[in-house]
# Entry
Amino acid sequence: MAKAFVVAVDGPGGAGKGELTKRLAKALDFDLLDSGAIYRVLAYAARKAGLAMFDEESLVQEAQVMDLSFEVMEDGVHVFLGSEDVSKAIRTEECGLNASKVAPHPLVRQALLQRQRDFRREPGLVADGRDMGTVVFPDAQVKIFLDASPEVRAQRRKLQLEAAGKEADFDLILQEITERDERDRNRPVAPLKVAEDALILDSTNMSIDEVFNAAMDYIKSKQD
# Structure
């Protein structure tokens, strides 16, 4: 029996995966999985429960019981922890850094792996993450690795924060992105890397429209 079609989009934070995957899911009428949100929700729930980010056993227990759900609304995909809409709370820099600390734990990743795979169903799935094409969906019909220079990613994040009325220090953001990249690329379990059969798109000098069009052309070639 053929498995539902999966478009796996991997890459470092700030490369534009979120916007690309939302556009792809809408254009293809597929479900959307933001795997990074799952780790962010766990980090948020763990912090709320007073757990340490290095306490693997407690994190696994939290991962197994947390009530996680996604709901598509007019303004995008909202993430819920129980009845609490945590969509904004999990997008803070602190939560992102904590999620990057939680993610390397092997038993935590194992606890969340099946929950991610359960999102694979008809009519199809667009999966956004760092190991979607290498670990979670190694048999995905389409694999895309979206990259961009650290400096460009830091500038994009700075503009996002300023647009939200928040102060943003470019050098600090660049340092955090560089440190996060280092952790993600060198962690012992499911490191951030390019799948052998992935299409590599470097968005450093590309608009989101150009990235989207390139991705759609590639997906269509795989669907034929």
User: Anything to note?
Assistant: The longest strand covers residues 68-73. The chain has a mean pLDDT of 91.
